[in-house]
Structures are given as structure tokens and as C-alpha cells.
Amino acid sequence: MGLVVKEVMARHSPSIALGTAITTVVETLLRHKITGLPVVDAESRVVGFVSEQDCLRSLLVSSYHCEGSPKVDDVMHREPLTVSPEASVVDMAEMMVKQKPKVYPVVDESQRLVGLLLRSQVLTVLKDNRNQCD
Which residue ranges does UniProt annotate as crossing the membrane (predicted)? Predict the structure, then answer.
């Protein structure tokens, strides 16, 4: 199985701009039924990653005390795990077994967002490949 990420990734992936309010991030996560999103700068370069858990923690504190307007910049992970469009799907499956992220931003050589690789996409490819074995 020689598939690469660009063959299975979601190309028109949602992302969040720096400075976005956490409530807007949550609306985007819920609308797209996804557990996390890349955070991008004005040039669409991936500069962070924000998850449902990051938002939950932030909203719990800010809504309990009704203070502040948290932004994605306050809660995002600043060193996101990204993947190349040329990466092997098998290698990504092995990485997903060892690490927690369910969503990987796919970036070009300039760190610009070109897509998202979801664990469900990798599972689908592996399942389809397994079905061909029988």
C-alpha cells in the first residue's frame, strides 16, 4: 500500500485565524464535527492547533467567572504536529497509534495549510485495503 497523504486528505479544510474568539472556534468545531483545528496566520501558515479540550478548559473558566473574552491565541498549542502531503499513509497510521492527535494539518514546504488528515480517513484507507486481502 503506497498511498500518500495528499491522496486521502481533506483539501478544503476549515482553519482558525489568529485572534479569533474562543466562542467562534467552538462554533466552527461543532459545525464541522471535528475535534481540533489548525490556527493560521494571514498567509495561511500553520502557527498553532486548537482542540475541543483547549476550548472546554478556557470556556469553563471564562464562563464561570463571566470575565474576559478568550482568544484562540491564549489556548492554542504553538508547536502543532503537521504532516507533508507526500508522507506515507502507513507511516501516519503508525504515528497515530503512538500519539494522541486525531487531526493533523497537512502543510507545504512553506508551512502553508493545504489540507487536514483525520484519523477516520486513515482508518477508512486501512479498512478498504484489508477488505481487498480477502
Answer: none
In angstroms, the CA 92 to CA 101 distance is 11
Higher-confidence position of 100 and 112: 112
CA distance 40 to 31: 19
Cβ atoms within 10 Å of 55's Cβ, excluding its own: 23
Q: Is the pTM of this model over 0.85?
A: yes
What is the set of domains in the chain, with CATH numbers?
5-133 (3.10.580.10)
pLDDT in tens, 7-54: 999 888 899 999 999 999 999 999 999 999 999 999 999 999 999 999
3-state secondary structure at position 46: strand
Structural contact between residues 105 and 50, judged by C-beta atoms closer than 8 angstroms: no
